[in-house]
Each structure stands twice: as structure tokens, then as C-alpha cells.
What we know:
Blueprint: H1 6-11, H2 13-16, E1 20-33, E2 36-42, E3 50-55, H3 62-66, E4 73-82, E5 90-101, H4 116-120, H5 130-152, E6 156-157, E7 163-164, E8 176-177, E9 201-203, H6 208-218, E10 220-228, E11 241-250, H7 254-275, H8 277-286, H9 291-300, E12 304-307, H10 308-317, H11 334-344, E13 349-355, E14 371-379, E15 383-390, H12 395-404, H13 413-417, E16 426-432, H14 433-441
Parallel strand pairs: 3-5, 6-10, 12-13
Antiparallel strand pairs: 1-2, 1-4, 2-3, 4-5, 7-9, 8-9, 10-11, 11-16, 13-14, 14-15, 15-16
Amino acid sequence: MQRVTIAEIYRNSAELGEKTITAAGWVRTIRTFSAVGFAELNDGSCFGSLQVVLDENNLPNFDAITACHVGASLCVTGILKLTPDARQPFELQAQSVSIEGASASDYPLQKKRHSVEFLRSVGHLRGRTNLFGAAFRIRSEAAFAIHSFFHERGFYYVHTPIITVSDCEGAGEMFRVTTLNPTDKNAPCPDFSSDFFEKPAFLTVSGQLEGEMMAQSLGKIYTFGPTFRAERSYTQRHAAEFWMIEPEMAFADLTDDRHLAEALVRSVVRHCLTACEADLAFLDQRVSPGLLERLMVCERTEFAHISYTEAIESLKKCGAAFQYPVFWGCDLQTEHERYLSETLCRRPVFVTDYPKEIKAFYMRLNDDEKTVAAMDCLVPGIGELIGGSQREERLPQLLRRMEECGLNPEDYTRYLDLRRYGSTRHAGFGLGFERLIMYLTGIANIRDVLPFPRTTGSAE
């Protein structure tokens, strides 16, 4: 069977008009008027659906087709008729229809609209809805745009390990990987010398450290893969399994890093505005009014840039009643980040040069020895989208920071070796892919941009 997708029909309707084609999809609606029936099919390839005209005189199995319930899958061969004056631009006049898979009468997606809470309970089917079909198509296009962006700029795509023995962020919230039998949590520490890796091992929270190693050989690299954090969080922005994009560049400083991050975000937004026009129009209308305008501002306007110190002063003077107090040295909360991007700058903004005490050990110490060459990119509706820095290439300063953070240098031998054998100025960042999809779609909960979300208490 040479099937034509519904997306292909929308793109090439002028060429396909009056021709016999075969299409397939799942029934959204089906209705009958005497000897004529109408089925609306969607195959997931685009937002639009295909209306199929069913004529009892042409279809021996007419009664079986029109008896199908919503959710059934049909394969239809017929003539594509262009209907420019009708509500739909074309329709398929069926000559033969096969029922690929029947659907039971208790199919969960009977209504036109369901709450996202209900749809999370039927995660195996929610991709058939307008909302989640749009979200997952945009996710796919955004991933393609990311790979294209880096490939066009000479970056090499590398695969860093999912299993690691080091904690890149130093937070300790990591999932353990072990072949040892479970023991009482109050029992003495197990003997890891008999474990598979002969030492404690974990699921990675970041591929950055290995990415830096590869950049010191290949010059410019990026990773794009799953990361894990065992943080018991119930917020809308946190998941236990999520995807990160992490570029690393040798011979680059914080300014280079910031310019790359801005170019990446704007490039992905530009691609999705073109490739996902119908999906974004639906989301703008039904999910997040003003979404298209926000994305167009991002795509067309240079990002703002302020220092952490300037941001703190602005937050103090703004008169807003924040839940969390603002002072120099505080870690910016989502309410602060959103104020800076949505009210103060009204566009994405980079905040740079944070106090060293609230940032990771690997960030380069500035000359004032109070701040580090770090950056966060804050965007309207989300807050922090990107976190990055110029990495500390000087061995003495790096060892001192590790000591201050209570890290054992023996756990980072190879990372430290990079500073001994031809160290270079280098920089990189991490972009949370799910947060990018939330920004692109206006969907507020990370659970609704992950096909199969892993969150506290949920691993279905």
C-alpha cells in the first residue's frame, strides 16, 4: 500500500486533485445521512484532518464502516476532490474502505475537549488529541532544528554516557545504578567493590564534564540526550527524566557562549514558526493567547543583557510584592526571572556574572573573586531556559573551588587532567529541551510536553 499522509495532501492538494489516492488514519467523527456517510480522519502527520465521503452505492461494507466507533482506524482509497468553497479545502470520495482496527464503544476520547489531567491518565492515547498532537509534532521539529543548527555551524554531535560516577552539579540528587540486591536502608553502606562498576554509579544529571573533554579534542561539540535527577519535586517545571542540549566550545569565552545560545533559540523559534504554523495557531487560540506574538518578538528582536547585580537592583526598586526576598547573593526564583523577562525587558534576557556561592564549581572565577562568568537566559512565561558559563581552565583556581564545594579531586581526575595538558579558554551551556518546548507551545506543565513523563510517583 502506497499511502499518502494527510500532511502531504495539504501540501500537494493542487497536484493530487482528481487523482486516486490511498490515505489512512483514526476516526475523529463519523456520521450518517441516509445512504451517505462522512468520516473525519486524522493520521497524526499534521494538525488538519481529512473528510472522507462514504457512499452506500460504492461501498459493499458501508454498514460496517458507518457502525465504527470513534478511534477506529481506516484505510481509504478514493478520488481526492478539491472543494475550495467549502469549509474543508478537499475531501476524499471513497471507492474502497478497509477497517484496519475497530474501536470499542468505551474509547476514552469521545468528547471534543478533555482536561489535561484526564488526558495524563490515558497517556497511551493522548497523542491523538489536537493538543498533544501539536505538542509532539513541535517537539519533533524543534529537535530537527537543533541538530541542523549545530551541523551548519561545524559542531560535532557526541554521545556522552548515561551512567556516570561523578556528580556534575554537586547536588547529590542522583539515581543509583547497581546490580547489588536491595538492603535495609538502615544497614551499613554496601561493599561497592562487588558491584558491577566496582564503585558507586548513577544516572547522569548532565553530560557537560564529558562534553568538555570532547571539545578539548574536536573543538566544538554538542550533546543531546536524556538526563536524570532524583529530586522529589511536584512543580510544573521539573521531571525526573528530561532531555538536555549541551554544547561546548574550545577557545571561547562567555560572550561567545551567550551569542551561540541566542542564535540557537532564535533559529529554533524561526523554524517552528514556519514548519508548525497550524499547530502554533491552534495553541495560540486555545492554550496560550499571545503565543505567536511572543515567539515573533523572540525571533526578530535581540535578547537583552544585564548583570546579576543590575538585576538585583532592578528587582529591589520595582515595587513588586515577591514571595521570596531579593538581596545580593540570593538565587533568583521563578517569580524574579519572569519579572525580568516579562515586565522589565519584555523579551528574553541574559543575566550574567552571578555570585560564586550560588553557582557550580566549574564556572570561571571573575577578577573580583566574588562572581563567576555564568549566564542564564530567561524567557517570558518560563523563567530560566538556559544556564551556561565560561569554564574554569586554570587548575589552581579550579582545585580551590572544588575544595570550597566539598568535592573530592580524585573523583574528577580526568577532568582535572584537561587543565594540565593544553588547557584552553572554553565555554558551554545547557538548554532544557522540555522547557524550550513549553516556551514554544505555551503549555505550562512539563508533564504535557513529555510523551511519557517520569515524575515523582509516576513512571507509567
